[in-house]
Specification:
The complex is a heterodimer of chains A (112) and B (108).
Chain A: E1 4-7, E2 10-13, E3 19-25, E4 31-38, E5 42-51, E6 54-57, E7 64-70, E8 73-78, E9 87-95, E10 100-103, E11 107-111
Parallel strand pairs in A: 2-11
Antiparallel strand pairs in A: 1-3, 3-8, 4-5, 4-9, 5-6, 7-8, 9-10, 9-11
Chain B: E1 3-5, E2 10-14, E3 19-21, E4 24-26, E5 33-38, E6 45-49, E7 60-61, E8 72-74, E9 83-90, E10 96-98, E11 102-107
Parallel strand pairs in B: 2-11
Antiparallel strand pairs in B: 1-4, 3-8, 5-6, 5-9, 7-8, 9-10, 9-11
Classes of the chains: A mainly beta (112), B mainly beta (108).
């Protein structure tokens, strides 16, 4: 699994509540990414990080924030969850000899 | 603009038939392209990348810069090939820009 885990695996929440998803890596890689996967849209980049406290926006960053206070953890926060944020969220790390992207198992988030 | 287009949402073939999943890209410069596969809502797995020119599970893909294409091919499909396939282009920050995906269904 390339040393990447996501938590929780599943979450159901209500509209308007804050939600935080966690991505944890054991490989000490510099680059980490958050994607969302939706039918008909494929995977779209939300935010990414290129080091501790270094983050930047992706294609669909509105309504999301991230934090990276240490190398191994990259947190994705939905400030006030909306139904349009119901999705499967994947974290990825970039590493290895050939700098490939490795993906976590995903978090299924339902916002009711 | 950097973009990946997979024109087919669904591709259905019979076992033993040839398969071609289409991918076109838009990128100024030398692109780095990948195919990822996702089985039954599992995590995405790298299938192959163009610079390695390898064959994984019988799949191959050739980069055609003239046609800006990176189609995935397999001469004889197997039932276990049924999955979602995503073509992806490496962006400037090392992120991947994905196409919308093609669901391959291989019927017995």
């Amino acid at each position: 699994d390339a040393g990447i885990t996501q938590s929780p695996r599943h979450k159901v929440t209500e509209t308007g509540t804050p939600v935080t998803l966690r991505c944890h890596q054991t490989e000490n890689h510099r680059y980490m990414y958050w994607y969302r996967q939706d039918p008909g849209h494929g995977l779209r980049l939300i935010h990414y990080s290129y080091g501790v406290k270094d983050t930047d926006k992706g294609e669909v960053s509105d309504g999301y924030s991230v934090s990276r206070s240490k190398t191994e953890d990259f947190l994705l926060t939905l400030e006030s969850a909306t139904s349009s944020q119901t999705s499967v969220y994947f974290c990825a790390i970039r590493g290895g000899v050939d700098e490939k992207l490795f993906f976590g198992s995903g978090t299924q988030l339902s916002v009711l | 603009a950097q973009r990946v287009t997979q024109p087919e949402k669904l591709l259905s073939v019979f076992k033993g038939a040839p398969v071609e999943l289409k991918c076109n890209y838009s990128y100024s410069g030398s692109p780095e392209l990948f195919w990822y596969v996702q089985y039954s809502r599992q995590r995405l797995q790298l299938l192959l990348r163009h610079i390695s020119r390898e064959s994984i599970k019988g799949f191959t893909a050739d980069l055609n810069k003239g046609e800006t294409s990176f189609h995935l091919k397999k001469p004889f499909a197997q039932e276990e090939d049924s999955a979602m396939y995503y073509c992806a282009l490496q962006g400037s920050q090392g992120n991947l820009i994905f196409g919308k995906g093609t669901k391959l269904s291989v019927k017995p």
